[in-house]
């Protein structure tokens, strides 16, 4: 038999989330690996899906998305960020942010173009840059605060840089980029004529009165930023795959040329329902952040109580902890040990790093599960000191 798989997939492995989900199933462990929210989808949104189906909104949506959702997205951008977005020409509705990022890289990157990316990064960024023919250039967010060094950022830009990917609030570190950090990024993007692609899927999950600043709102950035976000994290419906890309009409035209022949459109009734959610009062969005802040505080305290040193993220629903000195050779082994011996699964972060060895001492715990499950995880983790002692 010939080898069917295309060479472009050489070296690709199942994602770390698949791997850790399998581990969780095998040991019946509390899964703090994949960041999958377990809050119910708000009832008004569920009802809106049913209404949309009953009303016959079941056929192909336009490539750029249903008008009702684009109008709601423009109103949401005006309400939260003071942006004026043309819903007809400046928005594409996508199948989640993963598809939006894929579409962006395939629409704007030529083979050999450099794409700046912060490490650690969400796992799909690097393979997608490479599949599009781009050359990743990495700027490290340094532990323990997980911020970049301004000089290193400046040195990473070059005349070959075509785009940069910025994820804020950031997965997996929880860093929320400050206005002054974004100002430097904006200055460099303009100096080197670079397209900014932002992943803001945790935009409403920000804690302690921090605020999320949208890069596109900084002076001079609107015309060179594609803002990606989605409904999955804000309305607890990651399986609906509704995301979007907001940015200048010229960029939207390119996305449309690509997407008309790839995914074509996103699911129609869900678009109607998310349009309703985006018009929820401010209190919904505040309540969401408050709920996740309680979950964060609970898990960070529980991890600290068993001797770990988790970071306290300003946003997202992840916390990182260094596992040096706990007896496991690396994060991957630690996750396996934890699953097998205690029944809790985090994720190792090596695949979130360009130089995988840089991430091999860190593991990420997600705190998006409900209190009862976090409590069960905490009870199981309470045996960690005993386990580490035994392994020494
Ligand atoms: N974005 C989520 C995370 O980082 C979910 C990833 C996944 O399960 N594919 O955990």
Please tell me about this protein's structure:
The protein has 392 residues and is of the alpha/beta class. It folds into 2 domains: 144 residues, Aspartate Aminotransferase, domain 1, CATH 3.90.1150.10; 238 residues, Type I PLP-dependent aspartate aminotransferase-like (Major domain) (Aspartate Aminotransferase, domain 2, 3-Layer(aba) Sandwich), CATH 3.40.640.10. Helices cover 40% and strands 14% of the residues. The chain contains 13 helices and 12 strands. It has a 7-stranded mixed β-sheet, with helices on both faces. A 3-stranded antiparallel β-sheet has the order 9-12-11. A two-stranded parallel ribbon has the order 1-10. Strand 3, helix 5 and strand 4 form a beta-alpha-beta unit. Helix 4 runs parallel beside helix 5. The protein is globular and about 60 Å long. The N and C termini lie far apart (49 Å). The protein binds glutamine. The site of glutamine has 7 residues, from loops.
CATH superfamily of the largest domain: Type I PLP-dependent aspartate aminotransferase-like (Major domain)
Which consecutive residue ranges, at least 5 long each, have pLDDT under 50?
none
Strand order of the largest sheet: 2-8-7-6-5-3-4
Associated small molecules:
glutamine
Précis, in short:
By secondary structure, the chain is of the alpha/beta class. It has helices at residues 16-27, 43-54, 67-81, 96-108, 125-131, 150-156, 179-191, 249-259, 268-278, 282-305, 331-342, 371-381, 384-391; strands spanning 30-31, 91-94, 114-119, 135-140, 161-167, 195-199, 225-230, 243-246, 318-322, 344-345, 347-348, 362-366.
